[in-house]
């Protein structure tokens, strides 16, 4: 079985006195695409932020490549190969597309490799190539999401955490984003995908987890979960 890249054990995260994540255990193995689904406010984003060092953890542990990363900052985590593409994307709106991609590679100093990877991103996202000199803030929501993904990939992540990439996009853009997620996965990037679009997220994943009110209530093979009457009733509108 493939190496465990990320292991989360007994994770608790609180905002002030209120626990948002209440003891969560899961793992992601090398080469996997794992989807974390659940309704609004379940604690998915909070979990991702704790993993990437953006929020302190109250209890439990997180290890990446077998080492505890508890208490390490977000910058450090990117250097280790753990990259998050946040909900709302967080692109640099006053920079061009190319400048955003260069920023994504801030931890690298291999100029030729960076230039090559920018071309690779343009092959993966032709729309970004057409608009390479455009200011990122003037692009559509879907284009900005593509840029956010491409920028994340520029850091050569070992694990990419994608927080709700389909949020707020038109159906055509949602299709495009899922196509690209699948393509990136096929190219060998390990991913954890946080989504409210449960059916799409499970249909491309190896495994899935369901989060409700700060705890994981279900886990399993993604295909099996898609057919599970409880998942279908709660998340697939049946
Ligand atoms: P969504 O899909 O709506 O983003 P989520 O599953 O990602 O949902 P979180 O954003 O992790 O959920 O929120 C979990 C809980 O923590 C919610 O009750 C939310 O109101 C609360 N919360 C999130 N951010 C903060 C904050 N900065 N301060 C206080 N409470 C917060």
TrEMBL record:
CDD domains: ABC_TM1139_LivF_branched
Source domain of life: Bacteria
Cross-referenced InterPro entries: AAA+_ATPase, ABC_branched_ATPase_LivF/BraG, ABC_transporter-like_ATP-bd, ABC_transporter-like_CS, BCAA_Transport_ATP-bd_LivF, P-loop_NTPase
Keywords assigned by UniProt, alphabetized: Amino-acid transport, ATP-binding, Cell membrane, Membrane, Nucleotide-binding, Transport
SMART domains noted in UniProt: AAA
The keyword Transit peptide belongs to this UniProt entry's keyword annotation: no
Domain ABC transporter: 6-238
UniProt GO MF annotations: ATP binding; ATP hydrolysis activity; branched-chain amino acid transmembrane transporter activity
GO annotation terms (biological process): L-amino acid transport
Record family assignment: Belongs to the ABC transporter superfamily.
PANTHER family reported for this sequence: HIGH-AFFINITY BRANCHED-CHAIN AMINO ACID TRANSPORT ATP-BINDING PROTEIN LIVF (PTHR43820)
Protein name: Amino acid/amide ABC transporter ATP-binding protein 2, HAAT family
Origin species: Brachymonas denitrificans DSM 15123
């Amino acid at each position: 079985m493939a190496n465990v890249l990320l292991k989360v054990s007994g994770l608790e995260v609180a905002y002030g006195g209120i626990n948002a994540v209440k003891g969560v255990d899961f793992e992601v193995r090398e080469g996997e695409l794992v989807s974390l689904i659940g309704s609004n406010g379940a604690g998915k984003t909070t979990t991702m932020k704790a993993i990437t060092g953006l929020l302190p953890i109250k209890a439990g542990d997180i290890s990446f490549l077998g080492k505890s990363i508890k208490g390490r900052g977000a910058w450090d985590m990117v250097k280790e190969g753990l990259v998050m593409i946040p909900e709302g994307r967080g692109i640099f709106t006053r920079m061009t597309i190319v400048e955003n991609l260069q920023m994504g590679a801030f931890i690298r100093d291999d100029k030729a490799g960076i230039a090559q990877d920018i071309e690779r991103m343009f092959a993966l996202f032709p729309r970004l190539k057409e608009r390479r000199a455009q200011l990122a803030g003037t692009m559509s929501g879907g284009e900005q999401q593509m840029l956010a993904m491409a920028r994340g990939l520029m850091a050569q992540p070992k694990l990419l955490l994608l927080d709700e990439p389909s949020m707020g996009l038109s159906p055509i853009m949602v299709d495009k984003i899922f196509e690209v997620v699948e393509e990136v996965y096929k190219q060998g990037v390990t991913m954890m995908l946080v989504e409210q679009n449960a059916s799409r997220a499970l249909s491309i994943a190896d495994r899935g987890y369901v989060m409700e009110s700060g705890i994981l209530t279900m886990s399993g093979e993604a295909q099996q979960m898609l057919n599970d009457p409880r998942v279908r009733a709660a998340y697939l509108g049946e």
